[in-house]
Amino acid sequence: MSMAADMNVTLRLPTKTLFEGRADRLGAVAPNGAFGILPNHVDFVTAIVPSVLTLQLTDGSEEIFGLDEGLLVKKGNEVVVVALRGVRGNDLGTLQDTVKDSFIQMDEDERQARSALSRLEADMVRRFAELQRPLL
Predict the structure, then answer these.
(1) Beta-carbon neighbour count of residue 43 at 10 Å?
(2) Where would I find the ATP synthase F1 complex delta/epsilon subunit N-terminal domain in this sequence (predicted)?
(3) pTM, 2 dp
């Protein structure tokens, strides 16, 4: 069995792929605490809590992401992270503001979508009620 020099990491959101590339190290936070993954780490699956995920890329640079709850799957040299929401940050100092702004906007979009759905449901119920009225 050969030892892998790096890992292929993919970060997915419901609507897009946030990151796909090669990394030497990954750091994330599970419900039971922070952990790190190196290329030859044992395969496993864990939940991810809202936190910062860090990647050290093969070129030596570092990428940071603010993620909402999700799931991490490590199998072989493949790591896939899926999260409900996430943003890429330039540095830890600005990541908090980026997360706050993005997540607040997403919450507002979700609130508007739920409101529109409620109006559609109410209109459908009203139309069904009109169909049941006897004709005079």
Answers:
(1) 10
(2) 7-83
(3) 0.70
